[in-house]
Design a protein that fits this description.
- The strands form seven sheets. The protein has an eight-stranded mixed β-sheet with strand order 7-6-5-2-1-8-21-20. Strands 10-17-11-12-13 form a five-stranded parallel β-sheet. A three-stranded antiparallel β-sheet has the order 14-15-16.
- The protein is globular and about 65 Å long.
- It has ten helices and 25 strands.
- It folds into two domains: about 200 residues, FAD/NAD(P)-binding domain, CATH 3.50.50.60; about 130 residues, FAD/NAD(P)-binding domain.
- The mean pLDDT is about 95.
- It has about 400 residues and is an alpha/beta fold.
- The chain binds flavin-adenine dinucleotide.
- Flavin-adenine dinucleotide (FAD) binds next to α1, β2, β5 and α8.
């Protein structure tokens, strides 16, 4: 029996499993001849794009029934070692037991983590919405504010990072705080960023609408200033200003899983493996990378994939397809993703942009309804049914939107 191991059950890992299982199915090969195994600590998809919302503990979707429906084996463990010379991964199970898993092909889809620089107080006092546990910790803290006496520190949330995630979490905060502290509470939300503009990566096109939405929700900005230190009651900025706040949320960018450093391959500044056109790790033909662990060229203009769901889904589907294709004697295919769109939540409103220059296409209630649709339907796993699962896989691998 040959084995394809997929590390991670996020968006990329799930779609890698779906695409590999579909190709195995249409090739008439049985799971006894080609095993597809997904290794991840939990058998559910964490809906990371929703972790800035209230009730984050509910932002997961089960994967075991889906994997069962397509004969994919789920291994509940973390990978802590990749030995590409030996074609094995070292895994650690929940009870601490260690095992070694051999593979014929590997798809690394272990995602990313928030980058936390060594700022005094950040590790102790900083919150985030990066992983499920982080978002649950923040939610509990916010709920607990209701039991503290009113003060500027209690009533103020500071979001450090004015990128996509920072804006989404900041514009959600006024309504979340009012729900907890009462509609009349004197709340304050501030976004900090070292850059001189908000949402620097999105370019100038959507900026006036973003600034308007921040004003509309009462979210302040402090631009051109970084975080110098945090303590229990506030944050000190690089310009010397102090803001009293019991809730500082760090949203300063992501780094790929540290597992990428175990591959003998070039990585970019975010720690992502720079992969070949068919998402193979250069020099290591048995290993593919996808999702937030991979940096891949998306089109003939040289754009590169971002740490985003839309890229993770397609990267996962193509990596899973190609890894299985290699074992089944089918030609691999190049990764291509022509379109790039975003839907940025701005609290009571949203904007939908298209293209690498983020041209605003939809705004207001229509964009907000679309964000809801994306966040509650489109990014969830397909039904645990073979036909529905394989259809979703083909959609992720081939359809541009
Ligand atoms: C608050 C927030 C908002 C976001 N909003 C958007 C948005 O609006 N639009 C968008 O496109 N993107 C958004 N993103 C980014 C998006 O969530 C990521 O790009 C996406 O989750 C990447 O998918 P992935 O499968 O590569 O990694 P992940 O979804 O992170 O999944 C990684 C998987 O690997 C597993 N894993 C990790 N380490 C190991 C290990 N050592 N061994 C085994 N398994 C391991 C994890 O448990 C998980 O199952 C947002 C992210 C955050 C945090």
């Amino acid at each position: 029996m040959e084995r394809l191991v997929i590390v991670g059950a996020g968006f990329a890992g799930m779609h890698a499993a779906l695409a590999a299982a579909r190709l195995r199915d249409i090739s008439g090969v049985s799971p006894d001849e080609l095993e597809i195994a997904v290794v991840a600590p939990e058998p559910h998809l964490v809906i990371r794009p929703r972790l800035y919302e209230s009730a984050p503990a509910t932002m997961t979707a089960p994967l075991s029934p889906l994997f069962d429906s397509i004969d994919v084996r789920y291994v509940r463990a973390s990978v802590d070692r990749i030995d590409s010379a030996d074609s094995t991964v070292g895994i650690v199970e929940a009870d601490g037991a260690r095992r070694v898993l051999r593979y014929e092909r590997l798809v690394l889809a272990a995602g990313s983590q928030l980058f936390r620089p060594n700022i005094p107080g950040l590790a102790t006092y900083g919150f985030s919405v990066d992983q499920l546990e982080d978002a649950i910790t923040l939610d509990r803290h916010l709920m607990g504010l209701a039991h503290r006496p009113a003060s500027a520190s209690r009533n103020t949330v500071v979001v450090a990072g004015g990128g996509f995630t920072g804006i989404e979490v900041a514009t959600e905060m006024p309504s979340r705080l009012r729900a907890i502290l009462g509609s009349g509470a004197d709340i304050r939300v501030v976004i900090l960023d070292r850059n001189d503009v908000i949402a620097p990566a999105m370019g100038p096109n959507p900026r006036p609408l973003i600034e308007q939405a921040l004003q509309g929700t009462g979210v302040e900005t402090r631009l051109g200033a970084g975080v110098e230190a945090l303590d229990a009651t506030g944050v000190t900025l690089s310009n010397g200003e102090r803001i009293e706040s019991a809730t500082v949320i760090w949203a300063g960018g992501m780094r790929a899983s540290p597992l990428t450093a175990q591959l003998e391959a070039e990585c970019d500044r975010s720690g992502r493996v720079i992969v070949d056109a068919d998402l193979r790790v250069p020099g290591t033909p048995q290993v593919f990378a996808a999702g937030d662990t991979a940096r891949a060229v998306t089109d003939s203009l040289g754009h590169v994939s971002l740490m985003s769901c839309q890229h993770a889904n397609r990267l996962g589907a193509v990596a899973g397809y190609n890894a299985a294709a290699d074992l089944l004697g089918v030609a691999t295919e190049p990764y291509r993703q022509k379109n790039y769109v975003t839907c940025l939540d701005l609290g009571p409103t949203a904007i939908f942009t298209r293209g690498w220059d983020s041209q605003v296409e939809i705004t207001g209630d229509e964009a907000k309804a679309m964000k809801r649709e994306i966040n509650t339907k489109w990014i969830y796993p397909p039904r645990a049914d073979r036909t529905a699962a394989f259809e979703a896989s083909e959609w992720a691998r081939l359809v541009d939107y």
